[in-house]
Specification:
This protein is an alpha/beta fold. It is built from nine helices and 15 strands. It has two domains: 150 residues, Alpha-Beta Complex (Quinone Oxidoreductase, Chain A, domain 1), CATH 3.90.180; 151 residues, Rossmann fold, CATH 3.40.50.720. The protein is globular and about 65 Å long. It binds NADPH dihydro-nicotinamide-adenine-dinucleotide phosphate (NDP). NADPH dihydro-nicotinamide-adenine-dinucleotide phosphate binds next to helix 2 and helix 3.
């Protein structure tokens, strides 16, 4: 199995030398175990947090150990009664091309006609559920409302915008990191308008695309855009605090928004969430997302990097915005 170890903990932006690709022989298959050939593995921003030696909502990666994360693959050898060869499975032994372990660690998932198996890492997986729970349960978006999403061309953000549309948002606006991405927002995902977060004060750009203010802000980024959103929120506005990628590689904790007083004066709600605390919503999510995908109301967008040898590259450039939609690595 070709895998990637965490060689040392990154300081600030991660570099190639923080990682070590290795090839390891897999042991003989034990009773109740399966061997899986991965087809696609996921690289995600949250993995940056696990590379620090810091208490968080999940334990940090161990130094010198293979990295883990979501992966989808096919059983190629089995000593487990319920997982026969050829079964498509979703599991957490990512960052490698071949995985092996107890059958219980691998969840069989159905093939969806016309949808690539990588969708289980994106729109049909944790990414899609994050968008669904954050927008509908945490921010409680109502029909007719104005929604603002940051990192809107990314994996979570692009799905948030599309769900907002399907659920009857009045206006959907987003920010992204290049003119091409901003065009994608309106041309592919049904946003009404967008802006490039490199184009000067976010508060000014947001006021241009949402002149009547914002009711719901889906925050993937934190920092300046969070401050801009708080400044633009209408009375009783809500923020789903999903992530703060603008600070993930910072070596000093960033300053918070300077306008938190508005939380009081405008009766705002800022609510954080971790998607794994909301797995009870998975059945509802899949019941709605399946038809949305089939009917073309939601697009399963992704950026595919080819080859297990490019896993580290894919992770490094993800943090700098090289992806549109979900970033996945094809290893099969
Ligand atoms: P994305 O596909 O959105 O990829 C990350 C994107 O972040 C990049 O493409 C880049 O796009 C953008 N970005 C990077 N640096 C900055 C910056 N300084 N300012 C603004 N944008 C930046 O990743 P995901 O969809 O997987 O994750 C999005 C967010 O959701 C992350 O914060 C992640 O941690 C969070 N998350 C939270 C979960 C939860 O349970 N709470 C679950 C899953 C994800 P661009 O070119 O537009 O800058």
């Amino acid at each position: 199995s070709r895998q990637v170890l965490l060689a040392r903990r990154p300081e600030g932006w991660p570099e190639h030398d923080d990682f070590e690709p290795v090839t390891r022989d897999l042991p003989e298959l034990g009773e109740g175990e399966v061997r899986v050939a991965n087809e696609f593995v996921s690289v995600d921003p949250y993995m940056r947090g696990k590379m620090d030696d810091r208490e968080s909502y999940t334990p940090p990666y161990a130094l010198g150990e293979p990295l883990t994360g979501a992966a989808v693959g096919r059983v190629v050898a089995s000593r487990h009664p319920e997982l026969s060869e050829g079964t498509l499975v979703l599991h957490q032994q990512g960052w490698r091309d071949a995985a092996q372990g107890r059958g219980e660690e691998f969840r069989a998932v159905p093939e969806v006609p016309d949808v690539p198996t990588s969708a289980y890492l994106g729109v049909l997986g944790g990414t899609g559920l994050t968008a669904y729970v954050g927008l509908l349960d945490i921010a409680r978006m109502q029909p007719g409302e104005t929604v603002f999403v940051s990192a809107a061309a990314g994996a979570v953000g692009s799905v948030v915008g599309q769900i907002a549309r399907v659920k009857g948002a009045g206006r959907v606006v987003g920010s992204a990191g290049s003119p091409e991405k901003v065009r994608t927002l309106t041309e592919r995902y049904g946003f009404d308008a967008g802006f490039d977060h490199h184009d000067g004060p976010a508060a000014d750009r947001l006021a241009e695309v949402a002149p009547d203010g914002v009711d719901v802000y889906f925050d993937n980024v934190g920092g300046e855009q969070l401050e801009a959103a708080i400044g633009a929120l209408n009375r009783y506005g809500r923020v789903a605090c999903c992530g703060a990628i603008s600070a993930y590689n910072a070596t000093e904790p960033p300053l918070g928004p300077r306008n938190l007083g508005r939380v009081v004066t405008h009766s705002l709600t800022l609510r954080g969430f971790i998607v794994s605390d909301h797995l009870d919503r998975q059945p509802d999510f899949l019941e709605e997302m399946g038809p949305w995908l089939r009917e073309g109301r939601v697009r399963a967008e992704e950026t595919v990097v080819d080859g297990v040898e490019h896993l580290v590259d894919a992770f490094l450039v993800l943090l700098r915005g090289a992806n549109t939609g979900k970033m996945v690595v094809r290893v099969g």
